[in-house]
Amino acid sequence: MKHKTTHVIPVLWIVIFSIAFLVITGRFLYIQVTGEVANVSVTELAKEQRTNSYQIPAERGTIFDRNGMALAQEHTVYRMYAILDESYTVNPSEPKHVTDIDQVVDQIASIIGMEPSEMREILEEGREEDRFQVEFGNKGRELSQETKDKIESLQIPGINFREEAIRFYPNGMFASHTIGLTDKKEGEITGLNGVESHLNDHLTGIDGSISYQRDSYNVKLLNPKEIVNQPEDGDDVYLTIDQKIQTLMEDAMSEMVEAYDPARMSAVVMDAKTGEILAMSNRPSYNPNDLGDVENWYNDVISTPFEPGSTMKIFTLASAIEEGVWNPDEFYESGRYKAGDNITTISDHNGGEGWGPITYLEGIQRSSNVAAAKLAYEKIGSDQFLEYLKAFDFGQKTGINLSGEEPGNILFDYPIEQITTAFGQGTTTTPIQLIKAASAVANDGKMMQPYVIEKTVDRETQETIDVHNPEVVSKPISSETAAQTRDILETVITAEEGTGHNVYNLKDYSVAGKTGTAEIPDPNSDGYMTGHGNNIFSFLGMAPADDPELMMYVAVKQPELELTELGSAPTSFIFKNVMENSLRYLNIEPDKEEVEPVELIEIPDWRGKQTKEVTKTFEEKGIHYTTVGDGENVKKVSVSEGTKVLPNKRVLILTDQPKMPDITGWSRNDVLMLRDFVDLDVEWLGDGYVTKQSIKAGSPIQSNDYLMVEFAEPNES
């Protein structure tokens, strides 16, 4: 029995090993023939294991103003990280990982503004947990080129940087609600609001890629079989916004925030002939480069309907003229008006006291609610008045090419609503609806489509992809009605009894317009808020009055007024500063005879001339210039020859030996002009005028040099 077992066991083992051998051999043959393991290609897996692949990010398109000034652009920053894994070092004499935590903490923490103890904790925890690398939170992100260079000069092993793109807004709190802002979603910059959101698909490019084969030490092979797919950058967008007019508006509004601390403000400037929005702003606003606590995300000009008040009387007046029921010399009894037994009595804005029997012309000049109510309810008739409101496109969106527009609502179901709509109560609208409707008055009856995006351009080919041209939406009134309406609105400014007299008149240009003092619904009752300043004070004006070039609407909600101050104080300051200076900037001929024309200076021909000769000529002509460098010959001038400029406009002269000028006291606009003129990489802190510059005056400069500038207001030390 024992002999038999002794023979069987070896045979059994031979069979088992034979079967195992056949299975393994068969498996190897299968893999060799098919090249697959578990449906995975061995060849492809090997390629993948020895191939490095990187994404080449596409650059997001730039948003420009109408004159090519960058308003939003991609900006390169850096993220710092530290490699802790010793295996990353191939040659011990040239370490590629962090060898000395104390050295990192002592030399780098202060540069990035990080607490040394926090940096040490991150590094030590990473080492204890055997992490390959660590990062340093917000302090280690979005580092400038200057900071990166400073850290790299320390030559600390294991400290590396990853290049990243962020969205940068060169002008800070400038048309923020219009331009919009972005966020990073899955590593891609995506628009959240404004133009950034509206044209996100155009602005976003298509990423490229690069791949090559490497060895086990991550070194590229001699024959790496490199494959490169170039990225396609996003399209550039040009707005109708004019940087200079927008700056005038931003400055005036910021000044009124300081003076009156209103709950809200909105303003918009439109080209009366084309519908192009030249400036648009709101308060509260935000700096998209440094958001902090944002009080207001909404572009109130297009997104926040409200009861407009007496600016609505413009359209009541125009409707009455068009309907043929306007008689400026006809008298009516001002003060109070009760249209029927079951209709609430309405009152004029002086507590219902009125001014006795006055003409309808004087009623419009005094902004009489009774005059507007009688015109709409008795003269025009409610049904016909509603048709005019619809013809002016109230109650619907304007269709401006921006995201987030909301329509107002025509409240017209009951007789009292039909009456109060005539003077801007009950019915709601937005500033953009008001200025669109008023364009019919300014533009001889032709109502213009407002738009803020002028064109989209392919960055690589500079081919225009899409362009928006001026568009007449409709003609709700005749040119004769428009002209007569403007004449009457001009008397609101010129007549002694006019609510805009000596308040909205400009020095050099005539103005046609209408004031507004709108009541604010009380959230704690069914009525309206009371008390001095608890209103929305507004003005809708156009100039020159006879043939308007520009229109402007400004509204200020609940300013903190002294008991003796009128609500028109902040609105008139904004309107007068922006409108007067914008008309001058656009070289619109003043229409007041007593005004002397501004003497412009023509830039002479400078080509092929020496610096001394050019500067002498500029001095003789009274041109305000700054020389960039001390070379003998002029390379270029910031303003083309033959161009006419104002005497106080700064002109830059670049010589063949460029050097940094002393820019102390320069405005932000001057610094931006220098940036574009010399092609510098500029960053700044603060607002106001230059107090410090990182490149010393007289130092040689060249294209792409980095310049840090600090601004401060004149009253700051």
Automatic annotation (TrEMBL):
Its EC number is 3.4.16.4. It is found in: Membrane. GO terms for molecular function: penicillin binding; serine-type D-Ala-D-Ala carboxypeptidase activity. One of its GO terms (biological process) is peptidoglycan biosynthetic process. It is an enzyme of class 3 (hydrolase). It holds the Pfam family Transpeptidase. It catalyses: Preferential cleavage: (Ac)2-L-Lys-D-Ala-|-D-Ala. Also transpeptidation of peptidyl-alanyl moieties that are N-acyl substituents of D-alanine. The chain crosses the membrane at residues 12-30. Keywords: Membrane, Transmembrane, Transmembrane helix. It comes from the Bacteria. GO terms for cellular component: plasma membrane. Its main location: membrane. The keyword ATP-binding does not apply. Coiled coil: none annotated. SMART domains: PASTA (SM00740). Residues 597-657, 659-713 form the PASTA domain. Pathway: Cell wall biogenesis; peptidoglycan biosynthesis. Belongs to the transpeptidase family. This is serine-type D-Ala-D-Ala carboxypeptidase.
